[in-house]
């Protein structure tokens, strides 16, 4: 069976992480970047958490995890170092909760891919648990190709697409324009600017490429 990749919008949604170790920390950072509201349930916390706690970015309940702690969470991560506790958590979640079990992905309903993010561009690599290190390696290779400059490029593409849709255009022309801006020449700010001006109808220039 294949997995089904999705890009979740977790902004403001509740996430519960059981365990306060290194792996819990890694998952916390990923969830924070997505704007989730995170509660850590753990008798102790890995020192890296201190900053997050002090700045109020995460809530910590200093205790062992119980069924009640999972209530209201969209996403639950079982990240303790105790296999039977992690297994128990996977059995306690409701069928509509997302649960990731860090030491046995078959017990959960999702696992976490390696990813590279460049602003609005996200590329995720998964191996279904076969080799997290290969997922990391492929991610690193992809990250070299799709470097930091893609952050601004994506902003341009978004803006240009909006402009292309704003004005009433024939569907064929619209498609041509949307395709055109993904070509290499539009990686330069100069050509991006020219394109936006063209869409604004400045300088009386034609819409199609000369
Ligand atoms: C199933 C999954 C569940 C999940 O956690 O979602 C899972 C499971 C397990 N990982 C284990 C080990 C390691 N995992 C990593 C690294 C990452 N692991 C991640 C995801 C996943 N790991 C999910 C599958 C993803 C996929 O295959 O697509 C990444 C991609 C994302 C993330 O964690 O955020 C992150 C890279 C983050 C980044 O670089 O960005 C490293 C290397 C390192 O830490 O540097 C090692 C040591 C090397 C090794 O063992 O291979 C073990 C054995 C634990 C033990 O020893 O007991 C298990 C348990 C098992 O296999 O059953
Ligand atoms: N998915 C992944 O990427 C990886 C998963 N792992 C697995 O993740 C597990 C956790 O690894 P680390 O974070 O390095 O361990 P760790 O030892 O640093 O942290 C474990 C945490 O779980 C807490 N804990 C234990 N029992 C608990 C309970 N009943 N309720 C709440 N919290 C409890 C501990 O207090 C501690 O904070 C490991 O057992 C390993 O199998 C390890 C490497 C990678």
How is this structure best described in words?
Pathway: Porphyrin-containing compound metabolism; siroheme biosynthesis; sirohydrochlorin from precorrin-2: step 1/1. The chain folds into two domains: 99 residues, Rossmann fold; 55 residues, no CATH class. Helices cover 39% and strands 15% of the residues. It is built from seven helices and seven strands. Helix 5 packs parallel to helix 7. The protein is elongated. The mean pLDDT is 95. Ligand SHN binds next to helix 1 and helix 4.
Q: What distinguishing features does this structure have?
A:
210 residues, alpha/beta, Rossmann fold, 2 domains, 5-stranded parallel β-sheet, 7 strands, 15% strand, binds ligand SHN, oxidoreductase, NAD, ferrochelatase activity, Sirohaem_synthase_central, EC 1.3.1.76
Quick structural summary:
This protein is an alpha/beta fold and 210 residues long. A hairpin with a 2-residue loop joins strand 6 (114-118) and strand 7 (121-125).
Fold topology:
Layout: E1 14-18, H1 22-33, E2 37-41, H2 49-54, E3 58-61, E4 75-78, H3 83-92, E5 98-101, E6 114-118, E7 121-125, H4 132-145, H5 150-166, H6 171-180, H7 189-200
Parallel strand pairs: 1-2, 1-4, 2-3, 4-5
Antiparallel strand pairs: 6-7
Helix pairs in contact: 5-7
The protein binds ligand SHN and 1,4-dihydronicotinamide adenine dinucleotide.
């Amino acid at each position: 069976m294949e997995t089904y990749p999705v890009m979740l919008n977790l902004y403001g949604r509740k996430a519960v992480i059981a365990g306060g170790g290194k792996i819990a920390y890694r998952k916390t950072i990923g969830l924070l970047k997505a704007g989730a509201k995170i509660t850590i349930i753990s008798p102790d916390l890995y020192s890296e958490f201190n900053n997050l706690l002090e700045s109020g970015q995460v809530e910590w309940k200093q205790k062992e995890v119980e069924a009640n702690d999972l209530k209201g969470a969209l996403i639950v991560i079982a990240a303790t170092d105790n296999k039977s506790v992690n297994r128990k958590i996977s059995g306690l979640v409701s069928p509509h909760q997302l649960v990731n079990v860090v030491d046995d992905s078959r017990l959960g309903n999702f696992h976490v891919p390696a990813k590279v993010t460049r602003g609005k561009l996200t590329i995720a690599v998964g191996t279904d648990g076969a080799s997290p290190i290969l997922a990391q390696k492929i991610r690193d290779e992809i990250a070299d190709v799709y470097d930091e400059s893609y952050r601004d490029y994506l902003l341009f593409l978004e803006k240009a697409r909006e402009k292309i849709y704003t004005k009433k255009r024939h569907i064929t022309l619209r498609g041509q324009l949307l395709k055109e801006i993904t070509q290499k020449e539009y990686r330069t700010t100069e050509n991006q600017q020219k394109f936006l001006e063209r869409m604004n109808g400045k300088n009386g220039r034609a819409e199609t490429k000369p």
